[in-house]
Amino acid sequence: MTRWERLKYAMVKPDDARDDADPPEDRSVDEIQADIAQANDKERAIGLIAAPIAALVGLIISSASIDYARTHHQSVTTYDELTYVLLGLSVLMLATAWWRKRLFLGISLALYGLAVFNLHYWGFGVPFVMVGAWYLVRGYRLQQELKRATAGDSPRPRARTNGARPRTNKRYTPPT
Prior knowledge:
Oligomer: single chain
Number of strands: 0
Distance between the termini: 68 Å
Order of helices and strands: HHHHHH
């Protein structure tokens, strides 16, 4: 294989490749709902590590922005408020990671990344956006798994119609 193929297959498995592992087991609805209710240990650890890093990055970005504003004779009150917003988002990340709330952690990480990204500190913002998107996609996939698991159990209850046919639409003009 070429270097490009080795690098590509190190990151992404080809579609036709078979895993040596057993196929994934069908989980019960209760297990899936338990996974949806709380973030697992890996997700919590990532959030608990990302929050102090976000606070540190926020302080660095704020101090750099305030120094730039002072040297160019601009108002620094906007950047002072920015410091509070970035620190508030990092505290929110810490709280949501502590209480294992996957959706809110993903949203707060993505918002923090977008805030930093819009300040043109792209290298600091992109990782937070990507991690936040990972949390949101993970939550979406769990919801889809729950949807598939409950689809076979029982169909949705239908509305009672009392045997009457629906009324015709009075706006409909039949073809002539």
